[in-house]
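Human:
Take a look at this sequence-structure pair and walk me through the tokens.
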Amino acid sequence: MMNFRAAGLTKTLLFSVLSIGFGSSFLYGFNIGVINTPQT
């Protein structure tokens, strides 16, 4: 088992990567929903 702290993977880095990943996918999905809304 590799020591994550020795590899430079800290809790802050992991949290940042996950939040950026989920945040960008949320914005992409939201924008696709806005573009594809039916026009009345």
Remarks:
- The helical segments are 4-7, 11-35.
